[in-house]
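To: structure subgroup
Subject: Chain for Friday's discussion

All,

I'm putting the inputs and outputs inline so they're searchable in the archive.
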Amino acid sequence: MNHCSPFYFYTIHTACLKPLWLNIFMQLLPEIEQYRDRKWRREEARKVETAGDVEAMVEDLGFCLGLTDSRKNLPSVYTAVCGRRDAHMPRNVQKDPEASSAWVLKDEVLRRGKVYYGKLIKGNAMFLAPRMIPVFNAIWGVPKNREEKDLSGSANKILKVLRKEWEMGSADLRAETGITTRPRFTKALDKLQRTMKVVPQEVLYVPKFTYIWTLAEARFPKELAKKVPREEAVRELARCYLSMCGMTLVGDLSRTFGFQRWESGQANHQLVDEGFAERLGTGIYHLVTR
């Protein structure tokens, strides 16, 4: 079943909705799908073709995924390159023109450094608009005074080397840190990306494929220096998510970002109090059109 189709959402969420709200929910679905078509660039006329298009989309949305397809049910560069709802990543991406184009654009946007790129929530590669960097850092970042405790020994070794050298390729970084096993090195890098400590700043294919790594604070010093209370950060992420989706259903915010249900509910209720959202039923929030 297509995870982006209205029937998928109906099947998953019907059990959570009170009968009073079923008619409203089904009436709104076509409107919401059309809204997402525009916002997520799932239309032929709005599909992305250049690095500038990708950066403009990220700025508009706040964040998006990289090379994922419609099964993730979030906006992505690949879906926007395809310009349609039912975009599915083929197994052989090297021979697919849309997948190849999305991959090239990802590399170019990463290199330009105007938006943030890294493996963040649940290991997904994501692009962030600069305004969302303090928000994500407040929720998932690790302060310097907790690095020794919260990060592994391998992760701290990588940080120590990069704070001295500022940038380094994967092979050289692994050799310099003395991390002998590739899985341990990869796990440490993934953790450093999730905690917004390290980002790839360039990808090279000649003489062999490698990423060039640098400190996130070297690329986005102002954004990462900004302090945001967690409650405010969760609310602003909920705002960004609702603006992106048009409507959210029971548990959507918690499932997507891993929040506790009470924390998601609190953030959504604050958006209702502001007049940014309207509550249609238990756990159902609709963007107020301005």
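Points worth raising on Friday:
Residues 1-37+229-290 form a domain with the Arc Repressor Mutant, subunit A fold (CATH 1.10.10).
The longest strand covers residues 198-204.

D.
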